[in-house]
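HUMAN: Mind making up another protein with tokenized structure?

ASSISTANT:
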Amino acid sequence: MSSFCTKHDIDILNMDDKYKLRKRSRQKSQMIINLHYFHYELFNNIIDMQLIELDNRFTETSTDLLFYVAYLNLSDFFSIFNKGSLFALLFFIPMNSL
């Protein structure tokens, strides 16, 4: 990556330098380094936005169903198998189909 940035004259951030907040004055800003900002602040905000998007697209029932079906994964020989989750799957099956 650094050779690409050098080739195209793109500045490379030193992750140990202090992060400069754009909206606040320097006197009032928190003293955090670039690594902290990009690793925690930015990453966590993106994960939160993705979770909100998933919550908006899927109902709680469909999310629960996906969660319980994950316990039926054959990899690692059902290492995460959980009887309670298997029984919870029964609530998703219509009674007239049994």
The chain has four helices and no strands.
